[in-house]
Protein 1
Amino acid sequence: MALFGALLRVAICKALLFFSVCFAADQVVNYELEYKYIIASPLGVPQQVIAVNGKFPGPVINVTTNEYVVVNVRNKLDEDLLVTWPGLHMLQTSWQDGVLGTNCPIPSKWNWTYQFQVKDQIGSFFYFPSLKMQRASGGFGSFIITNRPVISLPFGFPDGDIVVFIGDWYTRNHTALRDDLDNGKKLGRPDGVLINGKGPYRYNSSLVPDGIDYETINVNPGKTYRVRVHNVGVSTSLNFRIQNHNLLLVETEGTYTSQQNFTSLDIHVGQSYTFLVTMDQNASTDYYIVASVRFVNESVWQKVTGVAVLHYSNSKGKATGPIPDPPNDVYDKSYSMNQALSIRQNVSASGARPNPQGSFRYGSVNVTDAYILRSIRPGVIGGELRATYNGLSFDHPKTPIRLADLFHVPREYKLDFPHNPVDRPPRKGKSIINGTYKGFIEIILQNNDTNVQSFHMDGYSFFVVGMGYGEWAENSRGSYNRWDAISRCTTQVFAGGWTAILAYLDNVGVWNLRTENLDRWYLGQETYIRITNPEDTDNKTEDPAPDNVLYCGALAYKQKAQKTSSATTLLGSSEPYLSLLLLFFAILYIL
Ligand SMILES: *[C@@H]1O[C@H](CO)[C@@H](O)[C@H](O)[C@H]1NC(C)=O
Ligand SMILES: *[C@@H]1O[C@H](CO)[C@@H](O)[C@H](O)[C@H]1NC(C)=O
Ligand SMILES: *[C@@H]1O[C@H](CO)[C@@H](O)[C@H](O)[C@H]1NC(C)=O
Ligand SMILES: *[C@@H]1O[C@H](CO)[C@@H](O)[C@H](O)[C@H]1NC(C)=O
Ligand SMILES: *[C@@H]1O[C@H](CO)[C@@H](O)[C@H](O)[C@H]1NC(C)=O
Ligand SMILES: *[C@@H]1O[C@H](CO)[C@@H](O)[C@H](O)[C@H]1NC(C)=O
Ligand SMILES: *[C@@H]1O[C@H](CO)[C@@H](O)[C@H](O)[C@H]1NC(C)=O
Ligand SMILES: *[C@@H]1O[C@H](CO)[C@@H](O)[C@H](O)[C@H]1NC(C)=O
Ligand SMILES: *[C@@H]1O[C@H](CO)[C@@H](O)[C@H](O)[C@H]1NC(C)=O
Ligand SMILES: *[C@@H]1O[C@H](CO)[C@@H](O)[C@H](O)[C@H]1NC(C)=O
Ligand SMILES: *[C@@H]1O[C@H](CO)[C@@H](O)[C@H](O)[C@H]1NC(C)=O
Ligand SMILES: CC(=O)N[C@H]1CO[C@H](CO)[C@@H](O)[C@@H]1O
């Protein structure tokens, strides 16, 4: 309703623009994203990658708090597509979330228009294609929500804004990776780490082959830049560092942090961090920007290292010599966890609103729902390799959950997700969490798998109140940070350890809970939480389904075929039209 109002306002606005009587409240911003394969050779091997508007990585979406965002996504891939926007709260509208449990996929050659408001949010996020490992072939781009001018930043206005995507990369495309998993194989070691879609700078001629295109970031001496770093990879935790430069951490997935300097920071799959970096060095050479693998044997994984170049305008030469060292903590597994726990919110800074971020006293709210989600190593269920939470590997209902609710489709899913790990053989299931509207949920993520995992919750930010090694126990609650824990949407869960999060369930809808590690996610390590407001009778706490909602599953009969509008596609790719045309001429001929 609100969105419609805003669209109307803009329409009126456009009509009146002529007379210059337009007000800029809650602007609507439009984007077109065309998903299409291109050939690229980031690691020297030509392969098909998913480009957005011809670019890999895709274009930046840069909007301001409270704006209405209209994104028309065109699917020119040869398979279904959904674009998801992790970290964006999608207030009251899981219809726009872009995951299989809430949206029917956009068929190949179709387009679909997302419409949502970035209500009360600031920060650095990224969008990506959520289906079937597609992110392993690209399709991601930056999503920035800039603060409104009336709300000051808790730091000086930076001289420039730089987006950095880091991520492990395979020279096999996403369909080949899928085939491996479908055949019960592990993905194995990635072939490299990309920085902004490019391979490593040749810092060592025996490790990096000649002729690889690398990323160069150009800066001016003495200036301070806002650097937004995202791990968009498949499954590898990366350590990020810039030679000789401090990384002043200022923001994490929409929350301003208590500012502190890092020489390097571990960034796990799906996570986003913003640093201020001051160009305070003498530019005797360029400097290395490094993203190197963590928690694996680095001498075996040496080639799996991302290296880009930081180039001052007054630089006197190329970067040479060894890359800066990673943290030396082979025998200290608490190093990375302590670093994570040191990331706190700045409770006195304003966020998207002019009140302090710490004004919600989450530490004194009583928990109403508690869940322990345990992950174990993927195993075979009914002949297939599958991954699980609490022994359940998610099997998507054919009809998206909320759409099924709306049209009273006989329930395929069950609201019986177990509160605790259950002692029974793993199986596939359609169980989701029954969330209590305005309840306060505690989720303990217990990682009994062998790699670090990233846990993500759509539609919400949660407080990361604790982490530890071994088994979580009741008395672990004593160690929770109940005052200034960071509020974010993606947290790491260390292998053999646990992470505890708290979230206030005030956003009605159905929201995906998943591991961001693509292989585990593909194998079923996800579920959903369904939050309904029994008192909502007039769409006040949940938006109605949008007019352009796609239907599938039990509701497929309601879906109209999409007309391709432009003349070129009519003759180029739209066979039904062509056959109609032929039929028409055939009839003419007969007559
Ligand atoms: C992916 O790679 C396989 C070869 O492994 C190839 O047959 C297939 O066409 C590729 N698919 C895409 C979408 O690039
Ligand atoms: C597809 O794009 C066109 C504009 O090119 C738009 O009018 C139409 O609403 C879009 N379709 C959907 C389902 O969003
Ligand atoms: C917290 O935010 C306040 C208000 O913007 C700012 O003055 C202060 O420097 C910040 N403190 C830290 C440690 O980041
Ligand atoms: C995003 O927009 C803000 C202000 O509108 C601008 O300062 C910033 O440089 C932009 N960032 C990027 C990466 O385009
Ligand atoms: C390049 O890497 C190899 C393998 O780790 C190492 O033996 C060699 O010393 C490195 N070369 C230079 C110039 O650093
Ligand atoms: C971070 O390091 C910079 C030097 O690179 C220094 O000027 C600044 O005071 C440090 N800030 C904090 C909060 O430690
Ligand atoms: C530049 O700084 C580096 C260390 O950061 C130092 O080793 C070098 O001597 C300096 N060069 C000049 C010309 O000052
Ligand atoms: C890493 O692998 C190398 C080569 O296989 C081996 O020699 C070394 O002991 C391993 N290091 C650790 C810490 O396991
Ligand atoms: C939480 O529960 C305790 C004990 O049941 C109660 O005393 C307290 O008032 C509750 N706190 C809130 C914020 O509801
Ligand atoms: C879901 O939880 C609500 C309370 O939040 C409860 O009233 C309802 O019966 C539950 N539904 C199921 C199927 O358990
Ligand atoms: C609420 O939304 C539903 C569709 O989701 C619609 O049928 C109904 O009329 C709406 N109710 C009101 C009061 O707007
Ligand atoms: C890595 C890890 O946490 N392993 C544990 C998994 O669970 C079993 C018992 O269920 C423990 O014995 C392992 O130590």
Note: Helices lie at 2-16, 174-182, 334-341, 401-406, 518-522, 567-572, 575-590.
Protein 2
Amino acid sequence: MSKFWSPFVKNLVPYVPGEQPKLTKLVKLNTNENPYGPSPKALAAMQTELNDNLRLYPDPNSDVLKQAVAKYYGVQGNQVFLGNGSDEVLAHIFHGLLQHDKPLLFPDISYSFYPVYCGLYGISFDAVPLDEQFQINPADYAKPNGGIIFPNPNAPTGCLLALDAVEQILKASPESVVVVDEAYIDFGGETAIALVDRYPNLLVTQTLSKSRSLAGLRVGLAVGHPDLIEALERIKNSFNSYPIDRLANVGAAAAFEDREYFEKTCRLVIEHREWVVAQLKAKGFEVLPSAANFIFARHPQHDAAGLAAKLREQGVIVRHFKQERIAQFLRISIGTPEQNQALINGLGQM
Ligand SMILES: *Cc1c(COP(=O)(O)O)cnc(C)c1O
């Protein structure tokens, strides 16, 4: 705190990202990064781009990447918005499309960045409780609102909402923008992008950070009706005209074009997730059904904070949220088979 801070800054409550430890020996299962590297074709494309052209600004519209994304999802270029990670895309969405008199709705247990954006942009919100099984109940969202946002699969629970339930939410609030944050959709869900042509109030966000192993590159996107995309372009061009740098433009485009590598690595993560779930259940854990690259689990006889501390001593980091309702859960990212084995070994006899 300093006398130079504005009252606005004094009152901000920022997001706290998962730890990025400097020690490389640690088995890092705390921030849902992909255990496999990016597509070799994406790396090669970026290496080629690493040249004297870096003195020039990138294409402000990222046309090449936009076309690659549009082609992949079978939509038009003007239905695609790109940003510096989907966190930035979400920030522009909150700023430009979710700031209304009525409260924004999102699940009480959800991505903890949502209330932070509400604080940043002065948006009132109403946290809608997940049901007893930690599931989203679409009927709970059929009430007056200034917008709706939820991750699908949800984070940190990993639970998937079926596409017809997503549609039920869209139908009940035709006058509001409904944002489906699909950061983890490629690990077992079906994207709602197929619905954008039928629902002009639907906006779907995705990221290259999880299923495409490019968290370090910072590229995220939104797909929706051109009118929604235009609002986001207006915000972007009033904030930073060049959010996607030259390396990110070519690397992300190549990652979308390399379907084979993408599908193979997603399959491996799903396969190893099922192994981790079985091992944890054998130790007495209760594991929520996951369609993501992480699982959310609790043990009836062991305190979650204690387990996280014990794992850390064994060199394995997982995420624990000191939050009501989920204080006894651990969120554990799926790693390589070796990392997953280190997790199971670290838990020891229970
Ligand atoms: C990881 C994550 C994001 C942000 O991803 P970036 O593209 O890396 O900014 C957004 N939403 C949810 C639910 C996430 O878990």
Note: The chain is about 35% helix and 15% strand.
